[in-house]
């Protein structure tokens, strides 16, 4: 997550020629918005997302968690399409996708694209 969690950085659309890429990137960034909303619920800055990461899900990475959110919401099983590869190199499994769905439900975040 970036130092200012409410700032959303989207790559130029010119760098994202296809609909798939745009949806994956926008949904990844949306996950960061919900990660920030999650942390904002707790006075000490802890979050449900942090607890998921600490338990070893998403290889302990909030970026891989955001990728998993995109993969889950868009029902995708690859970070690659054609010659374009997005994300942080890890495709999450069914257990992690269920954790994403539970987490999203807790935050009233979208769970389908
Ligand atoms: Zn990210």
From TrEMBL:
Protein name: Uncharacterized protein
